[in-house]
Structure formats: C-alpha cells, structure tokens
User: Fold Coiled-coil-helix-coiled-coil-helix domain-containing protein 7 from Onychostoma macrolepis.
Amino acid sequence: MAGKSSACKVRNVDINPCIEESDGSQKCLDAYNYEKSMCSAYFMRYKNCRKYWHGVMLQRRRDGVKPDMPTAEEREQIITALGGKPY
Assistant:
C-alpha cells in the first residue's frame, strides 16, 4: 500500500511542481520507443524544474514558511511574477 500512497503524491499538483515536465519526459520516451538519447532536453527540463523548486522549498523551510512547497496556485503566481518558468 505504501507504493499506492507514493504514486498519489507524485500526481498531486500541490506536492509535485514538475508534473508537466515529468509527463513531457514520459511522452517523449513513449514516442521514441524509450530511446533515452532522443529525450535529453525533456530530462534536463525536468531536472531543472526539480532543482528550482527544491531550492524554493529549502528557502521556505529556512524562513519558517508553511507549507514547505508552495501550493499550485502560489507557484503559478511566482511563475507569472518571474515572467515565465525560470528553468
């Protein structure tokens, strides 16, 4: 059952800020018959997304802001204020 709970967290937009990038990577792999070399740009985008939001989460934790990860709505406001995704 632990696996099921973990899968739900991965698909929860308030917990996982990189669902769009993850889905893009998966679709690329599906399209290119799992030829990873064809999808490196998608992998890099996902990696940069995770790195960016991990940094945000750590800073919020240091600042005592709860929840550690901004909600999907808050992230949308942050991205809009930045003029687009910084990754």
About this structure: The chain has a mean pLDDT of 93. DSSP finds four helices and no strands in the chain. The longest helix spans residues 40-63.
